[in-house]
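Quick one: sequence plus glutamine SMILES, need structure tokens.
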Amino acid sequence: MADAKPVTVPEGATGVLVLASGDVLWGRGFGAEGEAVGEVCFHTAMTGYQEIMTDPSFAGQIINFTFPHIGNVGANPEDLEAEDPHALGMIVRQDVTEPSNFRSVERLDAWMRKHDRVGLSGIDTRALTRKIRLEGAPNGVIAHHADGRFDIPLLLDMARKWPGLEGMDLAITVSVETHYGWEGGVWRLGFGYGPEGAEDGRPHVVAIDYGAKRNIFRNLVKAGAKVTVLPATATYEQVMSFNPDGIFLSNGPGDPAATGEYAVPVIRRLLDTGKPLFGICLGHQLLGIAVGASTSKMHQGHRGANHPVKRLSDGLVEITSMNHGFAVESATLPANARETHVSLFDGSNCGFELTDRPAFSVQYHPEASPGPQDSFYLFERFVGMMA
Ligand SMILES: NC(=O)CC[C@H](N)C(=O)O
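Reply:
Sure thing.
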């Protein structure tokens, strides 16, 4: 590891990324001033930056966007996966420009400032992505100071002391405190997300929130369910007291194997009820652990909006939205778990179903997007099991 040398701040630099390796990448800060320490990962989506920043699955992470024009459609109050951002900061190629979109109510940099999130522009995001691909996702500090004053040795020390996502339990830190009924389904121009979803007569899904993104609940509603959301620490008795027709395990941040006592033992008991059960992302990983499989940290992870996933039953390739740095290891799936989906990038597990119970899960976000290859059918399959 390179040691920090006395540094001169390049002319005009108001932001910096300091990696635990000793690499120092100068740029221009935007959004909030200050610093944040976490894992630096790259995301290949061309749009959806507000959704990415607010997805609770990104807690503990600093996002390097491979798409150069981030901020060009501004910020709006609808494209949020949670009320506040959970990603720690963003790294982009180009400076944020004036927004050009009829839904925009403010600039992205103003939104970042308001929500206390640090942004860094002017970075060679391709070089950084290449580094992450070769070396794995590093720990680092993103910092922004308008006066250009940075204590690089201190930032390096912060980056080196950060323990890393492996072994870190974050789901519990981003979950809700108490249960609530979810409302909000299909988006309509001029109306936003409709209030549907609470009507009686719909199959009742109890969703355990390990750091859920809102779009998953919207999709459950779109598929016909009524959704009640429970905190990550909900006990078996609490889940059952809502008399669910089906149980949903949400996405969420951190290491699935670090969730300890509150998640997996409850999931095991819920499986024994024989009620339909569906897990996504962290929920998929937790279901994997509950049936005896192991999870491991991936070299660079999968983060993007067009990751090809192969459905093993018929070979169809789904274009999926993904965000994960841990994966269920296929080889450790037990005999009663059939692998259903694999990543076309690296062959890693992306879905399985149990052969002796109505339970299945996937590693990606099944979106209700137009086109023949989306994966929304998974929500319909789940809700259909309760009919
Ligand atoms: N999207 C998610 O739920 C992420 C799951 C888990 N935190 C991971 O990084 O693999």
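Residues 57, 251-254, 281-282, 323-326 surround glutamine (CB under 6 Å). The chain has two domains: 15-161, 171-384.
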